[in-house]
Amino acid sequence: MRSRWHPPREGARTDVVLRLVVRTFSEVCLTAGTLIVLFVAYVLLWTGVKADRAMDAEMARMRDTWAAAPAAAPQPAVPQPAAPQPAAPATPTEAPRPREETPPPYPAGQAFAEMYVPRFGPDWNKPVLEGTGTEVLKKGLGHYAGTARLGATGNFSVAGHRRTYGDPFKDFPELRPGDAVILKDATTWYTYTVRGGPLRTLPTDVRVVDPVPARSPFTTPGPYLTLTTCDPEWGHSHRLVVWAELTGTRPVGQGGPEGLPR
Question: What are the pLDDT digits (tens) for 73-115?
Fold first, then answer.
């Protein structure tokens, strides 16, 4: 005689559903964990690889531009004036003052200088680009638009990532007063010496890049440098700030300044 089919008991059905839920949850956790690992690998490794390539490309492009620029033309000889002739006295007038031409701003998003920080290691050098936008800082350090030009009176201010995109300012907290920050453009080496910081402040404290930066050691106008980066190391709730002042310049043709690793 054939046995009749009996539906599973209520407890057995509950066990099946529970096992299905646990298995589904485990698979979801495994997938999420895999995605997190891949994301961390992307942030730690791939963004660094991309940033290093981008920085190398910017440095190469900038140096090619410098090499292709025509050398400064020699000044023509000034003709000797003829012997002075007697002339009727003239009414004294104020001599016209030569007009000072303001140099144009650096081209947005383009590299215009190199930075070397011996404290960060003998091989540390990065391009400095105009602007501090997200895409710009993926390719190097960024010059705050509107702050002083390199070597000029005022506050030449530069930002950089602490972590990700090449970790350019990873060792920022190691900077100390007396450290050199050396920059180079097409014609000149500029040596700045750290005088203050690192100072921890809020991102809204924009006065730290004023011409005479607030909370810095400086009280009168001068040729200053401000460096900023994020803090904490893997966050951006605060900023670290270091200030330096220009202590020397040197024509590129004379070679790098003292303190620059050979």
Answer: 343 444 444 444 444 444 445 555 555 567 889 999 999 999 9
Residue 12 confidence class, pLDDT cut points 50, 70, 90: low
Contact status, residue 177 vs residue 244, Cβ threshold 8 Å: no
Residues β-bridged to residue 116: 125, 182
Cβ neighbours of residue 53 under 8 Å, at least 6 residues apart? none
Interstrand relation of 141-143 and 125-130 (parallel, antiparallel or unpaired): parallel
Task: Name the nearest CA neighbour of 106 among 140, 71, 147, 139.
Answer: 147
Three-state DSSP at 29 gives helix
Q: Rounded to an integer, what distance in angstroms lies between the CA atom of residue 79 and that of residue 29?
A: 85
What does each C-alpha distance from 231 to 51, 239, 241 come to in angstroms?
A: 20, 5, 10
Structure tokens at 90: 């003239």
Element (H, E) at 167: none
For the segment 1-21, the average pLDDT, to the nearest whole number, is: 65
Amino acid at 73: A
Q: In the CATH scheme, what is the homologous superfamily, with its name and number, of domain 9-67+108-262?
A: Sortase (2.40.260.10)
pTM of the entire structure? 0.76
- Identify whether the C-beta of residue 158 lies closer than 8 Å to the C-beta of residue 128: yes
First to last CA, the chain: 98
Residues, the chain: 262
Question: Can you give the residue ranges of every domain in the chain?
Answer: 9-67+108-262
